[in-house]
Amino acid sequence: MVTDVIGDFINRLTTAVAVRKTHVSVPFSNLKHQIALVLKREGYLGEITEDADGAHKTLTVELIYDPDGEPRIHGVKRISKPGRRLYAPVRDMHSYKNGKGHVVITTPRGIMTDADARRNRVGGETMFAIW
Asked: How far is it, in rounded angstroms, from Cα 62 to Cα 45?
């Protein structure tokens, strides 16, 4: 049983990128699906599909690589953890890695990147950073 589903999801993504996989499958949850949609919108992931195998649903995501073989995901850093939740008001949100990365935040208006949260003037829990 996994207690940190977000940590498990980003760990599976980085491990799959490290071994040059084209797709990765994870157990389905609405939270992971929403995170995957945000990462797809920002250009880190490709197609996202839901697969049902009896009572178990899986989420399959396509990993994107540049034409020269470089992955779009270069690194991921978990910020808010189950033992230590970190929240940020909108005034404390800044661009990550000089605008080359994104911080994924869960807000009352849904899951979004730091740029979207600043645009919507809403704060929330900073889940992880990706570049």
From this structure: 6
The token duo for 50 is: 């839901």
What is the average pLDDT score of the chain?
93
Domains of the chain and CATH, by start? 5-130 (3.30.1490.10)
C-beta of residue 123 within 8 angstroms of C-beta of residue 90:
yes
pTM for the full model?
Answer: 0.90
CA distance 128 to 52: 28
Report DSSP letters for 74-112, one per residue.
Answer: --EEE-SBTTB--EE-GGG---BGGGTBEEEEEETTEEE
Specify the amino acid at residue 89: P
pLDDT beneath 50, residues of the chain: none
List pLDDT tens digits, range 22-38. Answer: 999 999 999 999 999 99
